[in-house]
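A reminder before we start the practical. When you read a complex entry, don't treat the lines as separate problems. The point of joint prediction is that each chain is placed relative to the others, so the output describes one connected object in space. Small molecules and nucleic acid strands, if listed, are placed in the same frame. In the example below there are two entries. Take a minute to note the order of the lines before looking further.
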Amino acid sequence: MEITGSPFTLGQAQAHLSAGPLGPRITWKQVDPLLFLQSSPSPSPTETQYDVAILAICIWYFASPGVLAQILEALSTRAKRVCIAEWSLTASTLSAYPHVLAALAQAAVECHNPTSVSNVRTILSPSAIVSSASAAGWTLKNERMFQPAKGTLDGMWEVGAVVDEGYLKEAQRLIQDEKERSVAIALRDAVVASLEAVGGTKGVDSMSVWCGEFVRD
Amino acid sequence: MEITGSPFTLGQAQAHLSAGPLGPRITWKQVDPLLFLQSSPSPSPTETQYDVAILAICIWYFASPGVLAQILEALSTRAKRVCIAEWSLTASTLSAYPHVLAALAQAAVECHNPTSVSNVRTILSPSAIVSSASAAGWTLKNERMFQPAKGTLDGMWEVGAVVDEGYLKEAQRLIQDEKERSVAIALRDAVVASLEAVGGTKGVDSMSVWCGEFVRD
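Here is the predicted structure of the whole assembly.
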């Protein structure tokens, strides 16, 4: 995984929080979430271990949609609420469409890669996340969308990864079937074409973020 | 294949032309283009059979990218020029993005369907078409993009086909792998989300059309 982040990396943000007034009350666990949950005992049905579990823009890193399903299932006996934020696959401006298309393009290649370290290994829309949560006993209580602040660079990064020649090499290496490969290449070509209307990669804005709050059924 | 067309079906358009002043000079051949070309002898290198071969918004119906390659190869000894028009995978307005996404979504399912009768069986961008032509000995001489007239309903039709529940059933039936299927479903969800910014399916415009003129190397 690339150690990048803007304006701060994850490590820098955690160090900043630990140094602040809430620092003594925070324990960081850098561990696979499913293994972490499974290693802690499931409490009795009348008690819950956590007030809230938060999945903050992390689902697309999961190895498959099944991982989210298992985490939500494990949380269903361990947390009172689950709050999820994820890229929405929604653009309300022309400048955010390259990010939407680039995420889909990466997913179309990476779904063929069992050892992916891409930022988009599993692509799930808000409605797919709600379905997965619902199957695990969670009810959507509130949801909203917001446009990330100007200068959020994720859109530019994801577009850059698709425009890069490395994307074509990976498509060639990972997708054997000519027709399937042509879909991934068409997605990349759509990303490239989408840049024209926004004046190139520097004109890309990040897509909207979706947030959902879930309570137990 | 659906017998639809707006403002006219293909059959109606052909009948109209045949009834006009050029009618006596027109012969319609409703036949697979590759079989048709292969059934006519390849002329000597110094003569050509046709002044111009036109592929008018037809490539996405081909069974695979290889079919286009074979047709362009067969034409390379039989025509002086090739003119191609195809949907561009480019949107210059928010209202055309649902069409772009819907074409990609259909392709992501139909590439798994060896007996597809969808409007998008093989998806190739303008640059993929230029590459295919180049490999067959054709040089791009001119190209342009244009926005189809308001009221061109293809965008609405393709979006409708993806929003329809039948799309999800086909994805379920044709795509065994959970990760690959989630990409097709994410593409559909992106189509649905894209409709919000344009006020629903009726606000969809068709994407731009690309035209290229090729001459022999």
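Discuss with your neighbour: Chain B touches chain A through 41 residues (CB under 8 Å). What might explain this?
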